[in-house]
Amino acid sequence: MAGSLKWFVYTDDLGTNYGIFLDESNTEAVNGATGDMTGTDIPNAVPRNIKVREVFYTNPQRTRTIRCVCLTSDIYSGIISGGTPTIPDPIDPSGPALGLIRGNGERRRLPVPLDSGLDDGDET
What are the start-end ranges of the H helices in the chain? Predict the structure, then answer.
């Protein structure tokens, strides 16, 4: 963690807004100054069944990797298509930039109303 923590607005792939508590410098490195949560718009936090979209950057020696959450699908798409291949190092901005090494799109776990099949004495 390079900076302070604060709440941001995360918009999922379906367009619903959620609150998410993230490292400020890492988040603003890929999203800019957008996505700050205001006192008038306080959504629920991201549910546990949603894994947020994220990108990972590393230093040239690959000894340190940072995770950055993309607050919108447009930002994620722009980064993955080559829009932000490097970001300034949040710990040492005068040093070499950090390079993009991978990205994970948003993932959702959906409940399945099935029994696991283990015998627990429950007939249903």
Answer: 24-31, 73-78
> Taking the CB of residue 68, how many other CB atoms lie within 10 A of it?
27
Task: Yes or no: say if 19 and 9 are a contact pair by the CB < 8 Å rule.
Answer: yes
Please indicate, yes or no, if residue 114 is contained in any of the structural domains. Answer: no
Count of structural domains, the chain: 1
Decide if 57 is inside a domain: yes
d(CA 45, CA 55): 20
Rounded Cα distance between 96 and 29, Å, is: 15
Nearest Cα to 76, choosing from 35, 116, 114, 37? 35
Whether residue 21 has pLDDT greater than 90: yes
Q: How confident is the model at residue 3 (pLDDT cuts 50, 70, 90)?
A: low
**What is the residue range of 12's domain?**
5-107
